Amino acid sequence: MSFHPHVPVRDFQLEELQQTNNYMKGNRKHVLDAATIRIMKGNNEMAHEKPKAAIIVANENHFVLTADTIEKIIAPLLTAPTPFWCTYESIYSACRFAVVVHDDRQRLHNTLRQYLDREVATSLCKILLEAEEEPVEWIALLVKFCEWLETQVALLTSLLTFYDQVYVVKYIPNVLPIHDGAYNVFDERIFGNPQLAKRLQDSLSTWLHWERDNYEPHEYRETIPKLIKHLTTHNQFAAFEQCYVNNAQSYYQKESEKKARDLLDDPLRFFWDAQTRIQEEEARSQAVLPVGSWGRIRQSISARRQGRMKNVEQIVKDSEKDEEMVQRLLDMKSLADDALSSAFLAAPRTPPAPSTSAVPEKQPDKAFAYALNTAFTLGFRGRRNKPAEMIAKHLHQSLRKGQGTLGYAEYQALLDAALALYRFSEDKDVFRTFYHRLLAKRLLVGKSASDDVEAAMLKKLKEKYDPEFGIGEDMFKDLTLSKEMMKDYHARQRKESLANKLNAIVLQRSAWPFSVTKQLVDLPADMQREVNKYTEFYKAKHSGRILNWDHALGTASLKARFKAGIKELSVSLYQAIVLLLFNDKEEIPFKDIKELIRMEDDEQRRTLQSLACGKKKVLKKIPAGRDVEDDDVFRFNADFDDPHARVHINSIQAKVSPEESQKSNENIEGDRKLFLDAAIVRVMKSKKEMTYEKLKTATIDAVKNHFVLTVDAITKRIDELVSQEYFSRSDEDKNLFFYVA
């Protein structure tokens, strides 16, 4: 039992000392448990040694112990389990004498700090590090040491009252009192020790895993609330709580992933197990944790929307698996939809009609459905633009492959599932741009599986997703008109004319996502002659129009003689131009090819790479390698062979390269600036006068169906438009703008 006299700084009367002495006679024994006895083995002799000339009588009302004696008292106070050879009131009086009369304050201070730091904290740290107890039992040992420290520090604070009330307060204000100083040393040496902190975390994890794996309380569970009490006293509970939360999140994340695989066909069982786990964790939290931590633990294990959001975000951010992104998202969405339809059902809020006795059919829970949609939307924000781009490319592949062995309903369901993901993307303009470009390539190269499916898809996109998709209708009109024009042109030619092999498609620049070609390649003479003839025919029918040729979008069919026989090669027009050069020469250097056809450098390298470095090598590159260099030489590969009579050679130009994707994204950013400027000006023109906040809100609302704005982007465009004098800023109020007519 500790004694707190709280005596003011004055002469200690003999009568008062006698009363205190009588009170303390029954409290001289200071017994530590077996674990604490191990702290100090080397100080027992000093603890039993009786100092010489211990008592000095100043007068009949005062008696004190020397400061030298106090040094030998502090050690047993902190370490020894044996009874003291002097009374507590003698120690109290000795402290007063050392601090007030004898002026041994600094010596007492140094002695106290030395024992707290070296004999207590260091010894405790060593024992805890070397303890062989099992993890959960080790927590009990730590709790015992914390209890012992609190008891001893309280006793020491009571006996050395004059140290705190005189020395600390009056002489050295920057020195901490005994209680704070002892706790600081303990916190630094014990809780601040990385090895002990790691062992405490591991012990906590062992306890939690045991209870979760065995579905019952551990025999040492009652130790945890005691530990939390001491951690709170030492301001360490926040770290403990965070460790507890992290452990719960990690454990249930792994368990959830495992059960998601094991119970893939039984989502109802999966979510029943999840609910059971939540209830178990709530019961454990209420048994050991403070009330303030209950909600945080529940949130960490039951926030399914947040977990789904993180899963979606992880898939979206996994740049190494971009090609698999959409399929992985589709698999996750399918699993979530199955769970919603089987495990999260709720009775309809509207009661059945009184005349019917049938039990109303349960419907998917709206709260979970809303949380699921929100999770996908927030997850898509983890990587702006990319999900919309990859969804467009996924649809491109599906529309190229066509229905195949699938039934019509299955094929439509496949396309609808990908479009359902498109709803979660806020970057509508990105999807529209990439889908538009890929649609154009499918139509021009003839790689679309069905024009009817393409038209139906455009109609669905326009009616249900984005009115801007009406532009696709003009593309089909151009194709239809071009076919009719080619029939008319071929009807005017002789049967043996090369003109019958020409097929030209005339495109409106406003309907197709292609820019004007800056540099035309040199076609073979007979090809160029037929192109010129068609140009004259077209201008004769449409005198007011300008016709620009884009050979990068053209295709050709060639017959090639190899040792294995004659093969028909389906190639791009660029590939055909290069291959026709080898009719005159078997071997041509890279630089000579460039002079002969005058193709752009990047295009020429990609074309030669597709012919000489791909799977179907109709040319040989010398020296061999994947990249095309300036000093390379190319030779016709007469040894080429293929089991098919008609061979299609993939064109790198037909694929969406990373460079093309980057260029498309740059164009999108440029278009966004123009669209944003136009939206801001339209809003200001209609309102004439607006504050910044109202203008910002109106602008966000105007562009929300196309892309998501940031506040910084709006601010920059407003400042730019003010500098261009589209509207002005008020001199009195900088947040007020006026439209300039």
From TrEMBL:
SUPFAM superfamilies: Cullin homology domain, Cullin repeat-like, Winged helix' DNA-binding domain. GO terms for biological process: ubiquitin-dependent protein catabolic process. It holds the Pfam family Cullin. Gene3D superfamilies: Cullin Repeats (1.20.1310.10), Cullin, Chain C, Domain 2 (3.30.230.130), Winged helix-like DNA-binding domain superfamily/Winged helix DNA-binding domain (1.10.10.10). Residues 386-612 form the Cullin family profile domain. GO terms for molecular function: ubiquitin protein ligase binding. Belongs to the cullin family. This is Cullin family profile domain-containing protein.
